[in-house]
Amino acid sequence: MYCILNKEQIIDGLQKAAGILPARTGAAYLRSLWLKAENGMLTLMSTDASIEFTGSYPVDVQEEGLAGVNGRAFVDLLRKLPQGELRMKLDPGMNTLLLEQGRRTYKLPISDATWFQPLSAFPAEGAVVWSGDFFHELIDRVLFCISDDETADAIACMYLKPREDKRIDVCGLNGHQFAVVTFAHDALHACLPPEGLLTQKKYIAELRKWLGTDEIELNITDKRLFLRSGDGRETVSLPRSGHMYPDYSTFLSRLSGESSTVSKLFLNRQECQEALDRLSIFNTDNDRCTYFELHAGEIVLSAQGQDTGSATESLEVTYDGSIERIAFPTRNMMEILAHYQSEQLNLTLTGAEGPCGINGPDDADYTVLIMPMKIADQQYYEPDDN
């Protein structure tokens, strides 16, 4: 292998390829980044045994060939080199890859050729064209609600579910929060398996880094989710999970109960966010909540801690319901509100300890549910009247 190129031709692809490689303590064969020069292209290939990345970039190929190098070390080196022409040449006799730039010369050990395993090719037949930035937005709106516990089976996954009305739900669940975005895309709906598509959060988080604003192609096989850049140069594939996702319709249906069974709270999102941010100062490890005292025209928000003191703020709202007091974890509620665009939000309360659903007029197809905290009647802080 011998090729001539400029650093800027491949550095972006190199960083994407190295990003999925295991840390330095991982198995040596998985730490390898494979470089294949042929037909005027340099193809980069990497995998952590689950995610696979392939990227092909035009270079001046003088001699075709294949070499594997320590991916993170190789990328660190190129990242620190100045812009300019690079020459890469494989010396199989010395088991090294020679990298030259001007008066700089580096010799990198190459991986055992028997370690190389061809990665899964993008299945072009039946592929769907989609918006990369829209997919990125969908991930952002549900990822924070997905469980971080990899042993939690389905709720450690993002779920894409084709609905009977030809729309698609994208869901995230962690046991105390649930988020769902609904959208329409006929071709993607037809591509999805009837049981839906599950992919673990850790893989979706890596995919999110790769997604840009350009169009992508998407396809699904029995075992993997494939995505390819619109120009066809980069491919990422992720393993599908075989778990069964919970039936989330059962708790969503509680939000549409009769007025006698649910309470409705309408508030200003920004005012509530700012108040929660101030009240969070008074939270402690033992009490991470903000308490909502609900009245027809206002809510009184309060927080307290043995070492921090107490705080109370009042907000003008519209409230219709029978629940007088409810508590939510402050940081969780702040994070949820930050994902909405609507100026005014509608909170549907199903009980002092039942799920609370959040919607907004400018977020018509987006719903987040949060479970309240059980209120313990305990006063941590007594103000001094003197």
Describe the structure.
- 19% of the residues lie in helices and 40% in strands.
- It contains 8 helices and 26 strands.
- Strand 20 and strand 21 (309-316) form a beta hairpin.
- Helix 1 packs antiparallel against helix 2, helix 3 (132-143) packs antiparallel against helix 5 (201-210) and helix 7 packs antiparallel against helix 8 (330-337).
Task: Determine the N-to-C terminus distance.
Answer: 83 Å
Percentage of helical residues? Answer: 10-25%
Spatial arrangement of strands, main beta sheet: 14-11-12-13-26-25-24-18-22
| Cα-based radius of gyration, to the nearest Å | 26 Å
Which architecture of the largest domain would the CATH scheme give at its second level?
Roll
CATH topology-level name of the largest domain:
DNA Polymerase III, Chain A, domain 2
On the 0 to 100 scale, the average pLDDT is 93
Structural class: alpha+beta
CATH superfamily of the largest domain: DNA Polymerase III, subunit A, domain 2
Pick out its properties.
single chain; 386 residues; alpha+beta; DNA Polymerase III, Chain A, domain 2; 3 domains; 9-stranded antiparallel beta sheet; 8-stranded antiparallel beta sheet; 8 helices; 19% helix; elongated; disordered C terminus
Which SSEs are present, and which pair or pack?
Elements: E1 2-6, H1 7-19, E2 32-38, E3 41-47, E4 52-58, E5 60-63, E6 65-70, H2 71-80, E7 85-91, E8 96-101, E9 104-109, E10 128-131, H3 132-143, E11 157-162, E12 167-173, E13 177-184, H4 186-191, E14 197-200, H5 201-210, E15 215-220, E16 224-229, E17 234-239, H6 249-252, E18 263-268, H7 269-279, E19 289-294, E20 298-305, E21 309-316, E22 318-320, E23 325-329, H8 330-337, E24 344-349, E25 356-359, E26 366-370
Antiparallel strand pairs: 1-5, 1-7, 2-3, 2-6, 3-4, 4-17, 7-8, 8-9, 10-15, 11-12, 11-14, 12-13, 13-26, 15-16, 16-17, 18-22, 18-24, 19-20, 19-23, 20-21, 24-25, 25-26
